[in-house]
Amino acid sequence: MVISQDKDAALRQRMEELGVREEEFHETFIRSSGPGGQKVNKTSSCVYIVHLPTGLSAKCQQERSQILNRFLARRILLDRIERLKTGIVKAERMRVEKIRRQKRKRSRRSQEKILEAKHIQSEKKSLRSRVDPE
Fold first, then answer.
1. 26-51, pLDDT tens digit by residue?
2. C-alpha span between 103 and 93 (Å, rounded)
3. CA 20 to 30 Å from 6, out of 59, 70, 103, 122?
């Protein structure tokens, strides 16, 4: 299966917009892993591509064809370069860090503080109950 002229032209144009040249890529072809049997073990259809100036890399083994994997790996790598240039990577890292902090186990002292506040609140609520007329 060959990539259409339109898709290839769109990829070239995107590379031009991002200021990325073909010479900045270092490509290696390795054998794929996973299902596929003898075909996977014989051919090196998996593409590993590195953008030398940024150090970003992409690995693609989605298709059986090396040509398609080269195209898809370039698209993935351009997405990563674009995210890096627009600052989305930093925002994503901050979001992940926030989630990690939220899931972190509380210290014993903070748990005690929370329980103490709950006890005080429950005492307040118990004083709100009706007064017996007797």
1. 999 998 877 777 777 788 889 999 99
2. 15
3. 59
